[in-house]
Amino acid sequence: MTPQIAIAIGAPMGLALTAIASAFALGKAVSAAMDATARQPEASTKILVNMMAGCALIEALALYALVFGFTLLGKF
Hints:
Elements: H1 3-39, H2 44-73
Helix pairs in contact: 1-2
């Protein structure tokens, strides 16, 4: 197996795995925020701010993986 074939097979699989993991992480973060808001409605603003910061970091990791994957695919 040549390195080009390994990259052509591995890069899309890695991107798919990253997308799935990001979706699960975002779902868990939003679910936990909704549970926390249901328990303490008076703290909903603080919960929302923290959830949005966490979601932004999760999305940034997914975008970094996408850029890295396209960089790898551009090598051959």
